[in-house]
Amino acid sequence: MSWIQTFTGRRIDLLDPLPDEISIEDIAYALSNLCRYTGHTSKFYSVAQHSVYVSDMFEIGSVSAEWGLLHDASEAYMNDIASPLKGLLPRYREIESYLTLTIIRKFGLPAAMPENVHRADWAVGAAEAFQLIEGSKDGWRLQEQPADIKIEPCSPRVAHSMFMYRFKQLFPDYVEV
After folding, report:
1. Backbone angles phi, psi at 46, to 5 degrees
2. Which contiguous run of DSSP H or E holds residue 4?
3. Handedness of CA 50, 46, 69, 60 (dihedral sign)
4. What is the pLDDT of residues 90-133, one digit of tens each?
5. CA distances from residue 156 to 42, 75, 102 in whole angstroms, order as listed
6. Domain covering 3-135+144-170 in this structure, CATH number
7. How far is CA 65 from CA 21, 88, 111, 161, in A?
8. Which residue of 41, 47, 120, 132 could cross-link 31, Cys pair, CB 3.0 to 4.6 Å?
9. Alpha-carbon gap, residue 72 to 159, rounded angstroms
10. How far apart are alpha carbons 112 and 26 in whole angstroms?
């Protein structure tokens, strides 16, 4: 069995995902309930909120803003695994890449994530690390300077609302079927 059942009752086959199985409501719900940094933050801080911050680095109407919001969408179906562990799991990365491709096709985005989204993701991640993780950051290989943002963790319910609000700004004509 390679499928999971989602919040909306859909089933998605992780090894052969179809665009019709993807739901923005499932993505928003799951990401708002997933904590970044495998839960090692001083307060609950969701992947959904992180995604909104990355998207907010870009103007509405840009592909970068859309990609920023959806760059971690596969985690709604596969969970958020610590980056050092992902590097040890090549099959996981392969499945994650294929699922991401299916998701971005669903929402009409180009196949390659823009490089500026990678940089924004790293900059937001650095800001999160310095503001939400206790202890020394010695040994962290930060790829960007921390974004100039104040991270204010919120509840899953609020993160879900933030995510859906941003989605509707970026995809105003989208109708879930």
Report:
1. -90, 160
2. strand 3-5
3. negative
4. 889 999 999 999 999 999 999 999 999 999 999 999 999 999 99
5. 15, 15, 25
6. 1.10.3210.10
7. 23, 30, 15, 17
8. 47
9. 14
10. 23
